[in-house]
Amino acid sequence: MVTVKAEAKASAFFICKISYYISIQYEMHMDLNVDMEMGLRLVISFMIGTSIGLEREYRSKAAGLRTMIMICLGSTIFTELSFSIGGAAPDRIASTIVTGVGFLGAGVIFKDGMTITGITTATTIWICAALGMAVGAGEYFIAIVSSCVVLVVLTGLEKLQRVVEMWHQSRTYKISFKITGDFQSHWEDDLDKLKLGFTKKRDLKEAHHFVVVYEVFGKEKRLDHLNKILKEDERVIAYEY
User: Fold this and answer.
1) Which domain holds residue 35?
2) Which pLDDT does position 3 carry in this prediction?
């Protein structure tokens, strides 16, 4: 009787030990699968950031290769962590990515004379973060297809934009000219002769000269000819657009 009980205890102990070993192996296997999927997401994020960053680097933009890779990877990591440690609100960490990217985008927008530059770079930073978030959330199809669309917009549509600018372009001119002489009437006559549309924005007087601001629009070739007229006019002290 004692022998039977001892054998039963030994069998139960052996079964428990085997069950514990199997459960440990299963958990390790599950952890390995999770880690491999997270690693795959990071690799995809790196590839997306690299493809967009190479295009920006080729054009010598402020946010180039390394910046785009870091933004895309960072967004992916934050999104993964948001789902892992977010608890009842898994989106609270991921939602702050939008705010942080807004600060980065604002840092590459500059006012250059009468024009503003860097808006395309800022929006590229914004979309790169969105792609990283999509990868971190496991939405691979959205991320990859959207990346292809972004590359088409950044590369393929540039020629179309150039064609549009050749046929129609708008420039804001700020012209400083001498007080003597009737510059404005001659200036507007030149605009009419060149068949350029225009709108007078500002008209002010400074210490020793007048300043006018015009928005002029028309074909690029005619606008370039207008620049030549301004350079040759002795009444013009300075101009910019």
Assistant:
1) 2-162
2) 53
